[in-house]
Amino acid sequence: MNTKTARIGAKDLVTVGIYSAIYLVITCALAFLSLIPIMYPLMTIICPIVGGIPFMLFLTKTKKFGMITIMGILMGLVMLLTGMGYWSLITGVIAGLLADLVWKAGRYSSAKMSIVTNGVFSLWYIGNYIAVFVTREAYFQHAVESYGQAWADTIQTYLPNWMAVVLLIVCFISGLVGGLIGKSLLKKHFKKAGIA
Predict the structure, then answer these.
(1) Which domain holds residue 38?
(2) What is the top-level taxon of the source organism (predicted)?
């Protein structure tokens, strides 16, 4: 790949924008389920699995380093602007960069690495939960004001501090599952993109 084709161009940015929008619509629609307390921690399973389908389609169009990182930044920015805090911006950058490295290692053509890439990218979701563990008291005080005492108390029960590591692992595993489902559903697109 020469320097010219390795640069991200306007067409690539449009691709990132389109797939980021699709991914965000799905994520935000699913986020309403978290109003039910038990669904709040389960979002780390549901979102990476369902989000894996458009993300895997995005990978068939992603042949340049940095495109996934930009998508991760966009995820984090939207979470920040919608009041989810800045942690998702940090995890979006980190997970996006790591996913870019994994996809590059797979030479943008490995079906196995595409699944791993989705697993790694899905780690960005943990940013939506970090405040629960890092600024616990302030988080739950705000949760009481926003969702009520019963919701906040139930979430505290579901998410003791040790759950932080569990949620991180679950994000990755669910991302792998989402990658597998996405790959099988998008088999024709993968063949057309030369991903074997």
Answers:
(1) 3-192
(2) Bacteria
